[in-house]
Design a protein that fits this description.
- The chain is built from ten helices and no strands.
- It is mainly α.
- Helix 1 (about 1-20) crosses helix 5 and helix 4 (about 60-75) packs antiparallel against helix 5.
Length: about 240
C-alpha cells in the first residue's frame, strides 16, 4: 500500500507540472489538437520522476550525510552505494509516509471516486507537499528564487508555487546536509591527526597514517553504536 501511495504522489506531482507547463486554449478543437502534445509532455515528465522524488524528499539530506560518514570513516566503497541508497530510500519513505497518506486521502481518493476533477485533485494534493517542504526551506532561499522568477512577492506562504519552494528546499537541504557532514568529520579528523603525529614522531614515514587510523575509527564507530546514532538523529531531524 505504501508503494502504491508513493506512486500516487508521484503521479499527482507529474500532473501538476504537466498542467502548469502545458496550458491549452479553451476551445474544444484546440484541446484535441494539443492532446498528443500533452501526452508526450506527460510521458517525458514521468521519466524525470525518480530525480524529482529524490530531491523533494528527505532522500537528499540522508544521502549527503551518509556519503560524508563513509568518507570520514575512510572505508571507501563500504557500505556500497546500493546499500546506502537503499537505506536512504526506506528512511525517506518512513519520514514521508504521513505526507503520502495525506495526499492519497485528500487528492487521489476524491479524484478516483469522481468527487473532484484532476486539476482540483492536483491542487489539493500539492498542499501537504508544500507544507512539508516549507518546514525545511529557508526564508533566504525562498526569497532568492522569488527574485529570480521576477514574480511579485506572495502575501502569505500559502501563495508560493512549487516552482519556487522546491529549488529553495533543495538548496536548504544541501546546506543542512553539509553542516551535518562537517560535524561528523570532526571526531574522525582528530583520530587521523593523532595517528599521523604518532607515526611521524616514531619515524614510520613509509606506512600511510590512514591505514593505521582506519581500524581505530571503525572500532570507535562500532563501540558507540554509530549507525543507530546517525540514522536516529537523521530521522528525528525531520520531526
Amino acid at each position: 500500500m505504501t508503494l502504491r501511495r508513493i506512486s500516487t504522489m508521484a503521479a499527482l506531482f507529474a500532473a501538476h507540472l504537466s498542467i502548469a507547463s502545458a496550458a491549452t486554449p479553451s476551445t474544444a478543437a484546440a484541446n484535441n489538437v494539443n492532446l498528443p502534445i500533452q501526452i508526450a509532455l506527460g510521458l517525458t515528465l514521468l521519466t524525470l520522476l525518480p530525480g524529482i522524488i529524490m530531491t523533494v524528499s528527505p532522500f537528499l539530506r540522508i544521502t549527503i550525510v551518509l556519503h560524508f560518514l563513509r568518507q570520514a570513516l575512510g572505508t571507501q566503497g563500504t557500505p556500497s552505494n546500493q546499500v546506502m541508497l537503499g537505506l536512504a530510500l526506506f528512511l525517506s519513505t518512513l519520514i514521508m509516509q504521513p505526507v503520502i497518506e495525506d495526499i492519497y486521502h485528500k487528492a487521489w481518493e476524491p479524484v478516483s471516486d469522481g468527487q473532484m476533477t484532476m486539476s482540483q485533485g492536483v491542487e489539493e494534493g500539492s498542499k501537504p507537499l508544500k507544507t512539508f517542504l516549507m518546514r525545511f526551506a529557508r526564508e533566504k532561499d525562498i526569497k532568492l528564487f522569488v527574485e529570480l522568477s521576477k514574480r511579485p512577492a506572495p502575501r502569505t506562504p500559502a501563495d508560493l508555487d512549487l516552482q519556487i519552494i522546491i529549488p529553495a528546499y533543495i538548496l536548504s537541504e544541501l546546506k543542512t546536509g553539509f553542516q551535518i557532514g562537517a560535524v561528523l568529520f570532526l571526531p574522525f579528523l582528530v583520530i587521523d591527526l593523532v595517528v599521523a603525529s604518532v607515526t611521524l614522531s616514531i619515524g614510520m614515514v613509509q606506512l600511510p597514517p590512514v591505514m593505521i587510523s582506519a581500524p581505530f575509527k571503525i572500532l570507535l564507530f562500532v563501540l558507540v553504536d554509530g549507525w543507530t546514532l546517525v540514522v536516529g538523529s537523521l530521522v528525528k531531524s525531520f520531526y
